[in-house]
Amino acid sequence: MIPITVRRGSAGSYQSNDRRQARDRRRDAIAEAYPRRPVMFEFLKRRLRAQSFKRVTEVGWTIADTKAAMIWDDPEPFRRDFGRAASAKSVQGCPAAIDFDARHIVIRCPVDLHLRISLEEGRAPVLENVDGARSTIRPQQIGQMVSVVNPAEWRHPKRPILQIITPYLFLSDEVAYINQLPPFLDYQAEPLPGTLISGRFPVHIWPRPLMWAFEWHDTSKNLILRRGQPWFYVRFDTLDPSKPTRLVEAEITPPVQRYIDDLSGVTNYVNRTYALFERAKRRRPEQLLVPRTDRKASRSAAKCPMAA
């Protein structure tokens, strides 16, 4: 009689393998019948992976308001007009200084303004056009363009804040935060009697027209703005700081316009607009930046060193 050796657990192992294979077949059948939708995180991962191969970060710009659009200059890269350096070690040849300067975009003032403000206890601030009849801009247009913020919203009771809504709007399909800055790289022989209120927000989520906000510190001095002077700068923070930014004039398509309209005016209803970013991401069109093709690039934009 030949002894038969029975290995413990062999039948159980075969039975366990059968159950495992059956479970895998059921899972594959369910996955085939009900394919999973790509989640937002996977979509962003694919987009970031595609963007990592680009040499530059593209940011679109446009003039959002078509009324009197010709008075608003195209954004242009900051430049220093120096002659040939006398020394190889001259400052204008410093790569760090060149890179820093080239990342700033200049927005020029569209009009001539000469304003005076009067503050009296218990009365609303009074804004006066000093040039009067000699002013190049009509009083009605000044009232539509320039507004004094409610004193309750000032940062200091004796420092009024003026606002001018500009039609400049920037947007991007890549992660990009815009920084609005005073024109500190340009020398001003007559400095303004106050400071620009700077700001920062993501243009890939929150494209909205920029606003020039000025805090008037020395109200005994007049506010003088000249058409064509550097008004403020913008620069952009991206995921890869080593990549330059290229400005592209954008076309506002109907879906993008609807998205911009959804964002406009929300500050009148809520305080913390940053809390709406996640909702804005879900409602955002897949493509915001559509390059405009019916107008040639301006000379300054065509030679933009940031796109080199």
Could you characterize what this model shows?
- The protein has 308 residues and is of the alpha+beta class.
- 23% of the residues lie in helices and 23% in strands.
- The strands form 4 sheets. A 5-stranded antiparallel β-sheet has the order 2-3-14-9-11, with no helix packed on it. Strands 6-7-12-10 form a 4-stranded antiparallel β-sheet.
Helix segment tally: 7
Summed over residues and divided by their number, the pLDDT gives a mean of 84
Uncertain stretches of 5 or more adjacent residues: 1-9, 299-308
Number of strands: 15
Can you list the strand order of the major beta sheet?
2-3-14-9-11
Helix content percent band = 10-25%
Shape verdict: globular
Order of helices and strands: HHEEHEEEHEEEEEEEEEEHHH
- Assign the structural class, choosing from mainly alpha, mainly beta, alpha/beta, alpha+beta, or little secondary structure: alpha+beta
Distance between the ends: 90 Å
Largest sheet: 5 strands, antiparallel
Global Rg: 29 Å
Strand content: 15-25%
Strand and helix layout:
Elements: H1 10-33, H2 40-51, E1 57-63, E2 76-77, H3 95-102, E3 105-108, E4 113-118, E5 126-129, H4 139-145, E6 146-148, E7 161-165, E8 168-171, E9 176-181, E10 194-196, E11 199-202, E12 211-216, E13 223-225, E14 230-238, E15 245-249, H5 254-263, H6 277-283, H7 299-302
Please summarize what this structure is:
This protein is 23% helix and 23% strand. With 308 residues, it is of the alpha+beta class.
